[in-house]
C-alpha cells in the first residue's frame, strides 16, 4: 500500500486570548468521575465539547494488529510497516462519518508520519492531512520520549484557542507520555487549551465516545 505524503505545515498563528469557555463535559459519561464532572446531557453536548475552538482531540490510530513495526521498516514505504486492517479502515471511516454528520470539522488535521496514522486521518475525511513530526512514534527509542513530549506540549500550548477544534492522529505511546492516560484504537484524549491564564486540562476520550458523536 502506498500513501501520498503531504507537506509539513506550520501551526496556526495564535490570537489574543478570549474569555474562558468551559468545555462541555458530557464526554465524561464514560470518563472517571474523579477527573471530570459527569454530565447527564445527551449527544448535543458531546458535539459541543469536541467542536469547541479551544479543544484539541488527540486520537490513537484505528485498529492495526500487532505491536510496533517490523525490523527494518521505512517510513517512506507503507509495505514495511504495521498497517490498518479492514476493521481499522472501517473504524476510521465510521468515526469520520459520525463527526461529519454532527457538523464537527477540525480546522487543522495533523498526523504522525506513520502510514497507519495517515490512513486513519485520511479515511476520517475531515480535511487536508498534514504530517507533524512531533506526533511520530518513539516506540523503541525511549531517549527521545521526554524531549519530544516536551516539544509537543509546547506546540499545543501555543495553538490559538479561538481557531480550533484541532485533530491530531498519533500513537498510544505518545498519548500516554503526554497525558498519563492510555488510549484504545480510535480513542484518545480531549485537551482543553488554556485561555486567560487558566491551566490546560486533559480528559480521556474513549473510542465509544469519540465514535458516538451523532
TrEMBL record:
It holds the Pfam family His_Phos_1. SUPFAM superfamilies: Phosphoglycerate mutase-like (SSF53254). InterPro entries: His_Pase_superF_clade-1, His_PPase_superfam. This is Phosphohistidine phosphatase SixA. The lineage of its organism: Bacteria, Pseudomonadati, Pseudomonadota, Betaproteobacteria, Burkholderiales.
Amino acid at each position: 500500500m502506498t500513501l501520498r505524503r503531504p507537506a509539513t505545515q506550520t501551526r496556526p498563528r495564535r490570537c489574543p486570548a478570549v474569555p474562558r469557555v468551559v468545555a462541555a463535559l458530557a464526554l465524561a459519561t464514560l470518563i472517571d468521575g474523579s477527573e471530570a464532572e459527569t454530565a447527564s446531557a445527551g449527544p448535543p453536548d458531546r458535539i459541543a465539547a469536541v467542536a469547541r475552538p479551544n479543544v484539541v482531540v488527540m486520537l490513537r490510530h484505528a485498529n492495526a494488529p500487532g505491536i510496533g513495526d517490523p525490523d527494518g521498516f521505512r517510513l517512506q514505504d507503507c509495505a514495511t510497516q504495521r498497517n490498518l486492517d479492514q476493521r481499522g479502515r472501517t473504524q476510521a471511516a465510521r468515526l469520520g462519518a459520525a463527526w461529519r454528520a454532527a457538523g464537527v470539522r477540525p480546522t487543522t488535521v495533523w498526523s504522525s508520519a506513520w502510514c497507519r496514522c495517515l490512513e486513519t486521518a485520511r479515511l476520517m475525511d475531515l480535511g487536508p492531512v498534514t504530517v507533524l513530526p512531533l506526533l511520530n512514534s518513539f516506540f523503541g527509542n525511549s531517549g527521545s520520549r521526554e524531549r519530544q513530549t516536551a516539544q509537543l506540549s509546547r506546540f499545543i500550548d501555543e495553538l490559538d484557542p479561538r481557531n480550533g477544534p484541532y485533530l491530531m492522529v498519533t500513537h498510544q505511546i505518545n498519548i500516554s507520555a503526554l497525558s498519563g492516560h492510555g488510549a484504545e484504537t480510535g480513542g484518545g484524549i480531549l485537551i482543553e487549551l488554556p485561555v486567560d491564564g487558566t491551566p490546560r486540562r486533559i480528559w480521556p476520550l474513549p473510542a465509544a465516545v469519540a465514535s458516538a458523536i451523532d
